[in-house]
Specification:
Blueprint lengths: L2 H11 L5 H42 L2 E5 L11 E2 L2 H8 L4 E15 L4 E9 L11 E4 L11 E6 H7 L6 E10 L2 E15 L4 H4 L2 E5 H7 L6 E2 L1 E6 L5 H14 L5 E5 H4 L1 H39 L1 H9 L4 H37 L6 H4 L10 H19 L4 H4 L3 H6 L2
Parallel strand pairs: 4-9, 6-8
Antiparallel strand pairs: 1-11, 1-12, 2-10, 3-4, 3-7, 3-11, 5-8, 7-8
């Protein structure tokens, strides 16, 4: 057996109760807590960003294509359907679906309440886009044989108006027909209630069929406000932006524009980006805590074993060999701390992922619980970086060993 490993094992696993053992335990606990905290913080921050971004993408798609001149309005001039354009976009790598949509401001009226909303009409073939958020009833907007118009309200709007699935309500539209504004009335039935968790959207939008808005606006079936491009799940922000840029430069005509959701809702996505800063701060603080504790531990161990160092030097051991003993001992502690810290951090994250015991105010955080998203590569990177930085830092206290003189240490011991 290697002599350095043999002596280190004797020191580490046969320590008597005392101050040095207490310091080792404290350092081990600090390392475990630091690694676990970094993994939990990273998984929760990524969970927030992943969950909220998916809600936004689920409601609007990843990229929106509309008229260049009237991009942000609720009642824009329509664009014509272009089959060739649709096929070109669907053929792009990473594109999962292309959805036609139209927007129309309206007023909902019940017996006792009145509410202004924006109806979002979507092609009936794309109903799966919103199926994830239907909490009551079904996503049904197409007319049946009785020519009933169905709409899907948000849970927030339904509560404010005192409505439920199956209730009837009157919808008023202001339409520009023959250069004059006319008030159109449609009777609708609530087929379902949705909840996206994004209160800013839920308070404004209701869902209907694209055909309903086309009829109200006297459009042909080839007209719509624009397209929504849905990319595959897990597509990165940079990939979304590059895809939007490619569509603008190579597919769209001059009167159309494609914008990513981060361009349309910069405030919300900027808030998500700020979470990265919180994650970075936590990781830096936890790393500093672990390094300070480990350095203090090693310094105390060196000073407490100064007699041992003196004896080793007296019998001919080199400073490099003695330094190796203490570095190996510290490596044991760092390695054990990182392994146990990973187990603790991942374990707590798994409990939260499946039990959801950390509850949040959905109105404020857009989610009702702390979401978890594991980035295994990032977790491995945290562990490896923690190990390398800790060992590199621990070399600093070992310089004291070279200054310990056997004659002085043994004389006063």
């Amino acid at each position: 057996m290697n002599l350095a490993l043999f002596l280190t094992n004797r020191i580490v696993f046969n320590q008597q109760k005392g101050f040095s053992r207490f310091i080792v335990i404290i350092s081990l606990i600090a390392t475990i807590l630091s690694v676990a905290t970094m993994i939990i913080a990273s998984s929760m921050v990524k969970g927030f960003r992943y969950e909220i971004a998916n809600k936004i993408y689920g409601f609007w798609g990843h990229i929106e294509i509309r008229s260049f001149e009237t991009f942000n309005g609720y009642d824009d001039e329509p664009i014509d359907r272009d089959i060739q354009l649709e096929e070109s976009i669907k053929a792009l790598p990473g594109v999962q679906n292309l959805v036609r949509f139209a927007l129309k401001p309206c007023i909902l009226k019940t017996e006792n309440e009145i509410e202004s909303l924006v109806l979002k009409g979507v092609d009936e073939k794309s109903s799966e886009v919103f199926s994830f958020s239907i909490i009551e009833g079904t996503y049904r907007t197409a007319q049946d044989t009785t020519n009933v118009n169905y709409i899907v309200l948000s849970e927030i709007t339904a509560k404010r108006l005192g409505l439920k699935v199956g209730d009837k309500l009157t919808v008023y539209f202001a339409s520009q027909i023959n250069e004059s504004t006319q008030l159109l009335v449609r009777n609708c039935v609530i087929s379902g209630l949705y909840k996206s968790g994004l209160s800013d959207f839920d308070k404004i939008y209701a869902l209907c069929s694209l055909n309903l808005i086309q009829k109200v606006n006297k459009w042909s079936t080839s007209k719509q406000t624009g397209y929504e491009v849905l990319l595959k799940q897990g597509t990165t922000d940079s990939k979304i932006k590059s895809t939007a840029q490619y569509i603008n430069e190579n597919i769209l005509s001059s009167y159309l524009s494609a914008k990513s959701l981060s361009e349309l809702y910069p405030n919300l996505f900027d808030w998500l980006e700020l979470q990265k800063g919180n994650e970075t701060i936590i990781i830096i603080l936890m790393t500093i805590v672990a390094i300070v504790n480990l350095s203090t531990m090693l310094l105390i161990l060196i000073l407490e074993r100064s007699r041992f160092i003196g004896i080793m030097k007296a019998i001919g051991a080199r400073t490099k060999f003695i330094t190796k003993l203490f570095v190996i001992q510290a490596t044991y502690i760092v390695a054990f701390g990182i392994v146990i810290g990973n187990a603790a951090g991942i374990g707590i994250c798994l409990l939260e992922k499946y039990l959801q015991f950390i509850r949040l105010d959905e109105e404020t955080y857009f989610v009702s619980y702390a979401p978890i998203h594991f980035d295994w590569l990032y977790i491995i990177l945290i562990s490896v970086s923690m190990f390398i930085v800790s060992i590199a830092t621990l070399l600093i206290p070992t310089f004291i060993i070279s200054n310990i003189q056997p004659s002085k240490v043994l004389r006063f011991s």
